[in-house]
Queue: 2 jobs
Job 1
Amino acid sequence: MKKFIPSFYSKNIFEINIDFFLKNNFKYILCDLDNTLDAYFNKKPSQFAKNFVKKIIDSGLDIIIVSNNSKKRVKNYCDGFDAQYKNKIKFVSRALKPYKFKVKKFLLLNNIPLNKCIMVGDQILTDIKFANNLKISSLLTEELENKNQFISLINKKIDKIIRRKLLKRNLLKNWRDIYG
Ligand SMILES: [Mg+2]
């Protein structure tokens, strides 16, 4: 169960106040793409995603999109941001979450300290388990879209069961409660 406990919880990424990241000393926002930053069917960034990324970068934070999806999908998506932001977005595609080795290598190569990272994602079995494997902070969200053809029904069921357990045991700490 320990592997499945996120550090924080938020209904979605867009409601998070950027001060939350700043006050908790997170500099690198590792963000899942499909159903976290955007609906899985959005080939280009939504206005919500654009505003979020703008706020992150304008505040001096870095965003690294960490996705299990293909390079083609992630790169095409990133190319949809305005030029001034596009160049500042890093990404790891086919990240092999929940395994840590590919992202760990990327972070080491880019001199990114683990204690300044927070992983934001909608899937416990991949995103949160990955963060806990890498021993970095994490924030769990709900899925932006319910239907996701790429996630098996069985994984969805397991995710739901774990969420219910975490909620019952009071292990989903809302970012607002911590932030105050
Ligand atoms: Mg996702």
Job 2
Amino acid sequence: MKYVVLLGDGMADLPIPALQGKTPLQAASTPNMDLLAKQGRCGLARTVPDGFPPGSDVANLSVMGYLPQKYYTGRAPLEAAAMGVHLDNGDIAFRCNFVTVEDGIMSDYSAGHITSEEGRALIEALKPLMPEQRLYAGVSYRNLLVLKAGARAVCTPPHDISDQVIDGHLPRGQDADLLIELMQAARPVLAKHPVNLKRIAEGKKPANMIWLWGQGPRPAMPTFQELYGLKGAMISAVDLLRGIGKYAGLEVIEVPGATGNIDTNYEGKVEAALLALKTLDFVYLHVEAPDEAGHEGKMDEKIKAIELFDQRVVGPVIEGLRRQSEDWRVLLMPDHATPIAIKTHSRDPVPFAMMGKGIEADESSGFSEEEAKRGGFGLVEATKLVGMMAK
Ligand SMILES: [Zn+2]
């Protein structure tokens, strides 16, 4: 049996008045996801345990079957693994976003989705300001800083404070001063850097501040194979997911042109997934674009991202699975909702659909938040899903 998780990051949403009370999943044309729901069985999954922030880290760990209560130490250490940055005992990894702050307001948590190349140049300029210079450039605005301290600061994800005054949201708590000092020290260097001057001249958002958050020490997780007896692969453009994959002992597959954005290489991801399944039992295929559109509050782009996921990932994966000779099961879901109305993640249970060999169909006629409420699986803990699928 082959197992596939198709994860559309942040696809779930709330009813939107401009869509006559439909959600983007309902408004989008998604024949393949609907077919999967119709021929399979739906339900609602709780991906964020009480007391945890509704981040992609916590939610995706849950979907993979890792209890966040046991294994979650923070987002940045997961991303460190993906970036090949080794963490020793005592190391604390931080996500270091490039952000745009205008008049004291968080106007863009991604500095206009700055390119990785531009980001690398800025990171080089900032390195000398950091203790031990352990500052690493990541994909686009997502960088990493490793310190020997900072675990006891309370930090706020920048995408949670879009369009808000940053002052009340700077790091707080015991280790906050050090972090705020580093964030402030970066500002003058960024302000006069040629990369930013050029961005401003081109009408783009400058990366005029760094934002530290998501910190933690390295986690200790059992491998996916130890949990389920399955060998698998992770396909994602996003470091967070690749890092979870590494700690889980999955093969992390590089797909050229996978960007974490709406222009990602969908065909390359599908091809890599189907190829991996020739030798492995399990693939986790993650697409980031619906979440990014949600964070930006762009309804039409979110609908488009969902439709692209449906046409260019869900459809071809099902088709590819049908062409091969082995039995298979697919789990389709978002990790969390990223409602357009709030531009950030919510902790509501998310819809899921499971389809394939031996899975009895329920009454669902399509894939949506509403249909999933009446699904045959009912409300389940997301940490049980892969176990249910692989039973
Ligand atoms: Zn997410």
